[in-house]
Amino acid sequence: MKRTFVLILLSLFLISCSQKNESKEEKRVSEETEPDQEKFAPAVLNAGSVFLDYKFKARNSFKYRLTSISSTDETIKGDTLLTNKFSQTADYIFDFTVKNKTNDSTFSLGVKISKINLISRYNDQTIQYKSDSIMTSENHRKFVEYESILNTPFEIILTRRGFIKEVKGLEKMADKLITSQNPSQQVTDEDRKKVIDYLKFAAITPLTQLIFRIMPEKKVAKESTWDEKYSSNLGNFNIMNKITFKLLDFVKLGDGIGAKISASLSTSHSGDKKGSEQGINYEFDDPKMEGSGIIIFDVDTGLLHSSSTTTHLETKVKMEGKDSRQKTRSTIRTENSTNKNIVELL
């Protein structure tokens, strides 16, 4: 079971870390899905200020397209210079159905990922997956991480501000993953729970949260700003992320009004830069992370209309150790990653 479980976790990494490809097909997808922020004409909000909260009516349904476009360039410098390029575009269609409003003023939403298109490249190797194409049994196993989440319903509990408070109903998704690895192998309750927790915290929750940008608690007007903070880990570092939002303007959305919001990311970090593991000494440079984007929130319907956000991360580490001849070798590894997420209400 240990080997099976490791394979599952490794494959799931693809779900939460979508990357970018530079092919003509991907550029076409990107151009079609990215919101044209210049098309929104300014509008006047008579009230001056407004709550930007989510509004749902029971049994209402809606769809979103999420496109995650990312790229990673890696350089390893030692006795020789090695470069690697990894890129991927992942396109998801989310179907939502409003179940009810709970007693604590949160909303229960049924969710289904009904379509996934993926194209990725590692150096000269290309992999493509389309959920609506006919696949062989071998390809079904090859893309089990996507096949398992495809058309497998789950439930989210969402606050009025757009924060996913809880994800439920991932048991069937977890069972698909487990049985696809080795149908005849016995799985303990503890192992099954680990898969469910990994799906919840490392894959489904962060992916779905991209659809619901978190809105401010209080009323806001043009030029209002507010912050959201959260922590994350990067190697030895504890990263404190701060996203600053600013309501740039009110814009026309058909017969309604939308709020045009800018977002900018700044970070600080703490942790040991130096360490040693298995006879190898390492030293990290300070990680460099930045991000920005534009969000359009429909004031009248209480739904995210569209968003386009980009983050960039640069890391560098020097490693030193002895080879089999006890000769000291040093290697410098540099990695530059860019991730762009585009969300559009369909």
Question: Care to describe what's here?
Answer:
With 346 residues, the protein is α+β, with helices and mostly antiparallel strands. The protein has helices spanning 2-16, 24-33, 137-142, 144-149, 171-181, 189-209; strands at 49-50, 61-77, 81-101, 107-122, 125-130, 154-158, 164-168, 220-221, 225-234, 237-253, 256-270, 274-277, 280-284, 288-298, 303-322, 328-345. A hairpin with a 5-residue loop joins β3 (81-101) and β4.
Total count of strands: 16
- DSSP helix count? 6
Helix and strand sequence = HHEEEEEHHEEHHEEEEEEEEE
Distance between the termini: 41 Å
Which structural class fits the helix and strand makeup? alpha+beta
Percent helix = 10-25%
Low-confidence stretches: 1-34
Alpha-carbon Rg, integer? 22 Å
Write the layout of secondary structure elements.
Blueprint: H1 2-16, H2 24-33, E1 49-50, E2 61-77, E3 81-101, E4 107-122, E5 125-130, H3 137-142, H4 144-149, E6 154-158, E7 164-168, H5 171-181, H6 189-209, E8 220-221, E9 225-234, E10 237-253, E11 256-270, E12 274-277, E13 280-284, E14 288-298, E15 303-322, E16 328-345
Task: Tell me briefly what this model is.
With 346 residues, the chain is α+β, with helices and mostly antiparallel strands. The protein is built from 6 helices and 16 strands.
List keywords for this structure.
346 residues
